[in-house]
Amino acid sequence: MSGTTAPVTRSQAAPFGERLRAAMTSFGPLCVGLDPHPGLLQAWGLPDTATGVRQFCDIVLDAVGGRVAAIKPQAALFERHGSAGFAALEHVIERAYRVDTLCIVDAKRGDIGSTMAGYADAFLAEGSSLAGDAVTLSPYLGFGSLRPALEKAAENRRGVFVLCLTSNPEGSAVQHAVSTSGVSVAAQIARDAAAVNAEALGGDSSPQSLGPVGLVIGATIGDAIALTGTDLSAVHGAFLAPGVGAQGAGGPELHTVFGDVRNNVLASSSRGVLAAGPDVIALRHAAETAAQEVTHALA
What we know:
Strand content: 5-15%
Largest sheet: 8 strands, parallel, barrel
Distance between the termini: 43 Å
Low-confidence stretches: 1-8
Helix content: 40-55%
Number of domains: 1
Number of helices: 13
Mean pLDDT: 94
Strand order of the largest sheet: 1-2-3-4-5-6-7-8
Structural class: alpha/beta
């Protein structure tokens, strides 16, 4: 690791759900994905190296820092550059904190026991240079396996987004599967998230209140919510929704998927915004336009 950035301190901040609601209210429900793919780096005239990744992210943050609800760096595209890539991710997380923009680290970690505890320390512990405001998690070793991360998030007023219903075609084989009790995997994940949020919120069932556990729900999954019997209204958490804009989801799709809980959707867009780069002003305009379009689509 670079050792050049100061630890990020959020333990004295408001709980993640409160901070996310405030950011969505102020800037609109848009999360800009930071996806430094090799092809995009090339299109921006940047080298496919950790240095290029860092330059890429600095340009994006120059454009949208302090102007959008959240950013979402895709960890794998940093990790592919080894230790220097991890240092670039640390830099992004720290800089997002400095410009008061929520950072969701898209790492999709999931394991059991001490290994899950290690991931929790890396991405959710106070003082870790890899800890943003929230991290994405995979629950497919059982929702209970996420307990170390859930506890660490609660301890440090951070959040998690748990994969629930994703838009990739392969996802339905697992997420739509039904247990012997007749409950689908996706529906059970939503129930488990709801239980954690209910405890965290202490009975506060206000529609504006968001607990620390959000779900990743693809914006292009059509009628999968109904097909799987998944109750989103009981979750009282945010829904991170990839697939908006360039990937095909607009107002009709968002209404079909999220129905009456649209107010809790944080729409994720990467291609639709990043295509405007590397010009900072063009990127800023693209993000502002995307935020307006998402706000209108979710109305």
